[in-house]
Structures are given as structure tokens and as C-alpha cells.
Amino acid sequence: MHENFNTPCVVVDLDIAEANITRFQAYCDSHNLKLRPHIKTHKLPDLAQFQLKSGAVGITCQKISETEAMIANGGISDVLITYNIIGEAKTQRLRTLSERVNVSVVADSSAVVRGLGEAFADAEKPLAILVECNTGANRCGVSSPAAALELALEISQRSGLRFAGLMTYPPVGAAEEVQAWLGAAKELIEGHGMAVSIISSGGSPDMWQAHKVAVATEYRIGTYVYNDRSLVARGVCDWNDCALTVIATVVSVPSSNHAVIDAGSKVLTSDLLGLDGHGHVLGRVDLKIDQLSEEHGRLWSDDDIDLSVGDTVRIIPNHACVVANMLDHIELVRGNSRVGSTAVVARGQVW
Amino acid sequence: MHENFNTPCVVVDLDIAEANITRFQAYCDSHNLKLRPHIKTHKLPDLAQFQLKSGAVGITCQKISETEAMIANGGISDVLITYNIIGEAKTQRLRTLSERVNVSVVADSSAVVRGLGEAFADAEKPLAILVECNTGANRCGVSSPAAALELALEISQRSGLRFAGLMTYPPVGAAEEVQAWLGAAKELIEGHGMAVSIISSGGSPDMWQAHKVAVATEYRIGTYVYNDRSLVARGVCDWNDCALTVIATVVSVPSSNHAVIDAGSKVLTSDLLGLDGHGHVLGRVDLKIDQLSEEHGRLWSDDDIDLSVGDTVRIIPNHACVVANMLDHIELVRGNSRVGSTAVVARGQVW
Description:
2 copies of one chain form a homodimer. By secondary structure, the first copy, chain A, is an alpha/beta fold. In chain A, 28% of the residues lie in helices and 26% in strands.
């Protein structure tokens, strides 16, 4: 049926996406783990609603503007923004947001806590803050359980702010270390008389090992809704579980072993995630997408390319989250039935 | 002055962009080479107007939707779409476009020519087609001068179509080979009684060697308007010639030699273009942007990172064309003066 689409286009199979959501919700339920999906992957309010209806406790966003777009039409009342919100313009918008929905954020430094404290000093409803912990991924986060305690104390002493727990963006395959780190921090903070209500971990690559970080109370996860080539490569899912595909048309077959499609880096993006090539052409393990220009993708085969101008191919991208972010609209299907086109409302926002 | 922007944001200095346009126009004028800028880089009608006013003969687009967005407000009357337009939906939109402005396209196969021929069979104004030639870049293009002749004959025999010349997306640093290829094709085609009115080459990396392909009549170029880290690395321009920068805020300084900024792959993109790291932090040669997540960029230094939460940095990205495509709006400045915000109208289009 993908012959019916104008290309390049991003297509999401809602049946697959919903099955992915349901399956991981059941896993979390069976482990008494709360699920808080990250909408950075789909940026679609309807899918967020489905996630909530399926049992998610709220959503995760990465940006103020994303959050504003996601809650615009109602139905979403609990948002964790896993980002250090910096600067008065943003902390003021955060305050406005917090008057509409339950919003919590993270912080990993006094500077961030100070900024939030100034914006919420006279707020009726205090802002819930999780202390972000660097459990080994070396992105953001305080560097030790002692530093987590220190920041927790600082938060709890500020009017308008409320210490709500710990958050980490964990390294992959390190459940034991993450558990030890967060467990130590929890013990230390509770030892100082503060409740650690929420311990939030996450990540799609380790989704089926989420229960191994037993101290965690909730799990944040984005890519699982669509899955992608990187997660198939890690053995987390199968090609059949990939809900997002890019449909492209062969626009040139310049030689017997190469062809060119109308999907380039402005649709597939250049994200490699450690993989070789720029996506998997469904049904054609012999093909490699070996080169991208902005609007061209080159398919290469060691054998006969066996494609003609006008043929369409369906590609599972390396990284679904960035591909879903490239076009204003995506196509929705259920199996072979077209559902319609939808705007990716929370994309392209400036800040 | 970049402390005044909410981040992350993409900022274009119009003074620099206009100087870039003027400088290369002067180069082309001095070599009797027509200039046809590729708007894929900026996707802004106002900059296209400036390019035309400066002496460009028309613009280049890569997509139908880009062209529609660029001509919507008038003032642009000549567009070359350097793409094989495939499928009835697109060829019909092309026909509609051709009734509004002078539009020409490329083709590198009989299949493409047939499709265009069907859409334009009864057109009053025939569609001008350039035969795309593979002069060594191995993307699209017919594989030999003889194949170019064959396709030129096919075009000229179709009612509604007009053979207008040759087009190539050339390999970098291969002026001699490109000249030989195109020269042979021109001679062959002219030997069969057809005029080769236009020979179109292009590319920013070789922009100052454009005159070396003496047979070319016009040059297509996109990145030169903004320049970027990849072109500085090739010695084509200087940091001061880079008109597009990304301004980001330091959101975390988790260790003495690393910091995290609020620009990730959803602004900077993962395009490397052979470079190490994800951009150049102006004024800080010691810093490397060594890792991107979607909304986080990691700065790493072998020495003291010397940055605080809330500091802003200004980044020259690896590849300006893809960065300009990421956000709905960009900021325009002239030196230290803010001009305003503008919508990037031709971005995010589905096809």
C-alpha cells in the first residue's frame, strides 16, 4: 500500500505503536514500576493520550515548548521536564505551565535551583524538583550521592520548591552500578529526614532490564513507542515491532549496483548510533544506504541492485526520535489502511 | 549581544550573508559565469531576492514544495529544480508551477523523461530539461557522454519537453575530469544538431575553482551564503565569513573538564562531513563538542572547562544547510543589532 504515498514521507503504524505501548506497560505493571513515557519520540498528543490511557502516570518532555504544545488541547495533566530550566524567560513560562498542569523538573546544580527558586518564590503550588544524578553516562547530573544530598537540602530549604526525588539518565547495561548509586543516595537523603518519593530512571536500550534497578519507582522511555534499527540491533525488538518507517521512491538507477532514493539527511538524519549505513530497507538485507545528501539517499548492493525508477522502498531508520522530528506532518496507518495525516505539533519549536 | 536570545536558537547575520553573496557574485561576474544559488541552504525568500538583486540568474531548488514556498510571495520567476521529478502527483504540481514561473528540471533516465513528457504533452510552454551527468560523484546522472546524447535526443523528440543542456553535481577537486566529461558531451550533442544552451555545475567546496570548468555556463551553490565549519576546514572561507551560528546556553557543568549545552542533534544535527566533533565553539579552540543527544550537547576540554551554568556559547555548525532546516524560526541580526525573527518557510515540507 505504500505505493499510495507521496514521498519521502514518514509513516507510523498505529497498530504497532499501540502494541508497543501496551506490551511495555504490562511489563512495568508486572514489576510495579510506574511508566512515564518521553514524548520527544512522537511529539503527538494523541499518542500521549493513548500512553496515559494504557496506564502511564504522566509524560516526560525535554523542553518547555514541547510541553506547551503537548498540553494545549487538554487531557494531559502530569509532566516531568527532564531538563535544567535556565533563564528567567524559561522559568517564567515554567511557572505559567505549573499553574495549568502538575509539572516537575530536574536540577543538578545550585545555579539551576536558584533560578527556579526565584521564579517560584511566591508560588502557591511549590515546584517539585528531582535531583539529576550522574550514574555513569557523563551527561548531566550531580557526581555523587553526597552531592545529591546537598542539592536536596538546598531545594527543600527554598520556599516555592519541593524536593521530590532523584532522576538519572543511566548508562546502558549498568543496572548494578545504577542501583548502587541511587540506593546510596536514597539512604543518605532519607537519613537526613527527607522523603525520596520518586526515583526515575529510563532508556529504551535497557527497557527489558528496567526491573533490575529495583530502587527506581518510575521509568522514562521514548523510542519504544516506534522502535528503530538501533533497538533491533540491540535485540530489544524485532523489525515487525518498528512502527515508524520512511517511504521513499527510487529516482535514479545510475548503475547496476546502485540506486538513488528521494530520502536524504533531511528525512533520515545522519544519526548513526554506532551502526553502519543510514537505515534498513525492509525486505532487502542486501542493500546498504551508504551515503546521504540532503535530499538523496544512495542504495548500494554488492549484487544486482534490482530496482527501477519509480519503485518505492520502506526504510526503518537508525533512530526514530530524530526522524519523527524532521517533517511538519506524518502519515498514520493501521496495517494496510490509511488513517490520515497528522501534524507533529511539538517539533520545530525554537526553545 | 547573544545573551539576549532564548536558546537554543539559530542566528543569521545578514551583513555577513550579504557580503558572502556579493563576493561570490563578483567572482562569477569576473569569470562570465552565471550564478544560480541553491536555496536549500537558507529556504528564505528574502535572501533569495537579495541573491537575484545581486545578479543571480534564478534560483535552484531541490523539491517541488520548496519551490512552491519560495515563489508564493512573488519576485522569483526562474527556478531550476535539480531533481528527477517522479510520479503523477509531483509532475502535475510541476506543471502548475511552470504556468506561474519559468521552471526547468533535470532528468537522467528515460523513465523520468517519460513521466515529464506525459504531464507536459499538451503544455503550451514546453518544459526545459537538463540532462544530469555523473561526472564522478556517483550519485545521480547518466554514465557517459553517449548516454547524455541519447537522453537529449529522447527529450527533444517529446512534445511538451525541450532539451536545454547539461547539469552535474560534480566530485570535489576534479575540475579537469568534469571539464573533459562535459566538453565531450557538449561536442557530441552539438554534433547532432542540438544546442547545449546551459551547462550547470556547482558546489561550495570548489567555489573558487568554478572557473576551471570552462565549459560550464552557470554555477549552483548553496552553503556559500552562510558558510560553515566544513568550508572553513577546506580553506574556502574564514570563521568571520560564517553567517549562521547556533547560540546555546550552558545548562550543566558536571565536572571540571566538561559542560553540557542546550543544543543537541535536534538543532546541530549529526552531520559530520568528515569532521571530528559537532561544531566549533567560537573563541574556544580548546573545546570539543564530543557528544550530542537530542537536546543536549556535551563540551569537553583537556583543560579546565571554564564555563558556568547560564553562560552562552556561539557555535559554528559543521553543516549550515541542515541546521537552518531544523527550527521553524531563525533569528536575524546585523552585527550586534537584532533585526527580528523569520519563518523558514520552505522547511519541514513533506514532499
